[in-house]
Amino acid sequence: MVAILIIGGTCGYVLIEGWPFADSIYMTLITLSTVGFGEVQELTPQGRIFTSMLITVSIVLMACWTAGITTILVSGELSGRFLMQKEKKMISQMKDHVIVCGGGVTAMTVIGRLIAEGTPVVAIADSKDEIESIRRIAPEMPVIDDDPKSEMALVDSNALAAKYLVAATESDYDNLLITISGKGLGTDLQVISFAHSNELASRMFKVGADDVVCPLIIGGEHVAQLIRSES
Q1: Alpha-carbon gap, residue 203 to 180, rounded angstroms
Q2: Between the CA atoms of 129, 133, 136 and 141, what dihedral angle is there, to the nearest 10 degrees?
Q3: Angle, nearest 10°, between helix axes 21-32 and 45-92?
Q4: Counting C-beta atoms within 10 Å of the first and last residue's C-beta, which end of the chain has fewer, N or C?
Q5: Is 3.40.50.720 the CATH classification of the domain at 94-230?
Q6: 54 pLDDT higher than 80
Q7: Angle between helices 21-32 and 2-16 (to 10 degrees)
Q8: pLDDT score at 72
Q9: How far from chain centre, in Å, is Cα 9?
Q10: How wide is the angle at C-alpha 174 spanned by C-alphas 171 and 179, nearest 5°?
Q11: Residue 154 — φ and ψ, nearest 5°?
Q12: pLDDT tens digits, one per residue of 184-208
């Protein structure tokens, strides 16, 4: 549309005023942009009418463009708010559900299996990529965009009515803090945490974790079992 206006304006000045191409396109550009520069050459009455029309079209085009951008932004914001309200209502009605903290490979595996079995799940993740990945495998499952270590995130996930809390971030230290926050609620919430370090796994048990899963140890034991079965 802008290109058509530039071409039309340039041709108009060439035909109406008889100006050179360079003067015509320059006059068109400063008119459409409404920068307020002076006229390149003295305009004839016909030229002034043409310029007025060009300015009017430019203003209308700018208004339409601005309205379009505003509509897109407002529409996206309203859509996001509607989804948040919908998920909050869904979470508030949940009971004996599972809260999964994290959005990495471990958390995604847990979420995928639980969803496949029909278990109600709420996920907590603070990475945009992780949240998008979770929504791809479970589009109807509520996801809280917040720091999994945050006690407020646990409150928003209706942890007081939940049955399990799974600390499945990629960081053992984060999982330890999640465990502490979960057990600090003072409910019957069972906390299962993942740990790659034996030392941190021991700490998780000390702060009240009901179970700690060490993927590396389990993997090693599985490999040894495969070798024994082949022998």
Answers
A1: 10
A2: -100
A3: 40
A4: C
A5: yes
A6: yes
A7: 130
A8: 64
A9: 43
A10: 125
A11: -65, -40
A12: 988 889 999 999 998 999 999 999 9
Retrieve residue 67's tokens. Answer: 């309205």
Tokens 């869904």: give the residue: 90
Query: Which residue in the block uniquely carries the two structure tokens 């529409």?
Result: 75
Query: For residues 104 and 202, what is the distance between their CA atoms, to the nearest angstrom?
Result: 23
**Any idea what DSSP says for residue 43?**
P
* Nearest-angstrom CA–CA distance, 103 and 128: 10
Tokens in use for 8? 């039309």
Strand-pairing partners, residue 213, are 194
CB-count exposure of residue 97 (10 Å: 0-12, 13-18, 19+) = buried
Structure-block tokens of residue 126: 């603070």
Residues 87 and 142: beta-carbon distance below 8 Å? yes
Question: Domain map of the chain by residue range?
Answer: 2-80, 94-230
Separation of alpha carbons 95 and 103, rounded Å: 22
